[in-house]
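haha ok so turns out i had the wrong file open the whole time. this is the CORRECT one, sorry everyone. sequence first:
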Amino acid sequence: MIKSLIGKYNALSVQLRATIWFFVCSVLQRGISVITTPIFTRLLSTKEYGQFSVFNSWLTIAQIVVTLQLAGGVYTMGIVKFKEEEKVFTSSLQGLNLVLCLAWTGMYWIFRDFWNQLFSLTTVQMLAMLLMIWSTAAFSFWMTTQRNQYRYHLLVAVTLAVSVAKPVIGILFVVNADDKVTARILGLALVEVIAYSGFFFMQVYRGKKFYSGKFWRYAIAFNLPLLPHYLSNAILGSSDRIMIQRMVGVSAAGIYSLAYSISQIMTMVNEALNKTMSPWLYQKIREKNYAAIPKVVYPSLILIAAANLALIAIAPEAVAIFAPPEYQEAIYVIPPVAMSVFATYLYLCFAPFEFYYEKRIWTTIGTLTSAVANIILNYIFIQLCGYQAAGYTTLVCYLVNSFMHYFFMRKVCKVYLDDLKPYNLRTLLLITGVFMGIGFLYIPTYANPILRYTYTILLLIILFTQRKRVVEALRSILKKKV
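then structure:
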C-alpha cells in the first residue's frame, strides 16, 4: 500500500506536488505556533500574553509602513512581468527593502522616546520588531520565487526548522527571564534573523544589482497607492486588540487575543488555500478562462466554512485545552472571529480582478472604509458592551469589506470584461448565510454542553440523511454559469 501511494505521488505533476508541499509549509508555520500556544498561555499571565499580542498587532501594522509591502503583490506581479530580468528585479527589491528598514530604524532611534510611548513598547522590543520586519521580508522574497518555480524541498526544510526553533527558543528564553514578554520577542527575532538573513545576501549576489532606478520606481509607484489598502487590512485585523488594551486593559486584550490565536487553526487553512489559489486566479484571468474560476472557488468557500464551523462547535474545549480557566471568556469571541476568517477568504476571491487590472484606488476605498468603520464601531461598542463586542464589530466590517470588493470587482468586469459575472451573487450569499446562521446558533449552547452536543449531532444527522440533496445542491452551484 505504501509503495502504491509513493508511486501515485511520484506520478503527480511537479506543479501538483509543489502545491501539496506549499500547503504543508503553511500548515507547519501556523500549526506549530498553535500547538505551542497552551504552553505560552501557562508561562505568561493574561497581562503578559496581552502585551505580547499587542506587540504582534503593532508588528503587523509597522511592517507595512516600513517595507511598503514590497514582498507582496507587487513582487508576485513583477517576477511575471519582468520574467527575463527576474534576478535583477529581486535583488533590487531586496536592496530597496533594506534601505527602507534602515531609514525607519534611524528615524526611530532619533525619536525613540516618542515611538516607545506611542507603541507602549521598550527600546529593545522596538529594535527587535524592526529586525523581524527586515528578515521576514527578505525571506518572503525568496519564498515567492520558490513557489513561482515550484521548488519546494529547501522551502519545506527551512519552514520546518524555523517553525520548531521559534517555540523551543521562546520557551527557553521565557523560562529563564524576569521580563518574559521581551524574552518571547527576542526569541522570535533571533530565530528569524539567523534563519532568514542569508536569503537576502544570496538573492542580491545572484542579481548583482542592489539599486535599480527602473525597478525601485516601478515598485514604489505600484505600492504607494495601495499603502492605505494594506494598512487598512492590517488595522482591520489588529486594531481591536490595541483598542482593548487602551480602553479596557492588557489582561482583557490577552483573553481576546487567545480567541485569535485559536482561530489561527483556521487561518492557516485560509492562507494555505489562498497561497495556492491566488496565483491560479491570476493565471485564469490572464488566460481569460473565467468559467474555471467558480468551479474551484465555490468548493473552497464551502471547505473554509465547514472548517470554521468545526472550530465554533468545539470552542469551549479548545479554550480549555489552549489556556487555563482565567481565559474561559474567550469562547464567546471565537464564533465572530472564525466567521471573520471566512469573510477574509471571501475578499481574497474578488481582489485579484482589481489587482490584475491595477484598479488600486477601488481596492483602497473598500478596505479603508471598512477599517475606519471598524475603529469607530470598536470605540462605541467596546464601551457599551465590553471587549467581546470587538469580535462582532470586526466581523461586520470584514463582511462589508468583502462585499464592497465584490461590487468593485463587478465594476472592473464591466469596464474590461464585457460585463462578465465571475461569480453568482446569490450563491455567495447562500453559502455565507447558511454558514453564519449555523455558527451563531452555537453561541447559546456554550453554557450547556449537552445542548451543544445535541445540536452538533442533529446537524450531522441532517447532513447524512440529506446527503443526496446536499450533493445535488453542490453540483447545482458548480454548474452556475459565469
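The chain has a mean pLDDT of 85.
again sry for the mixup
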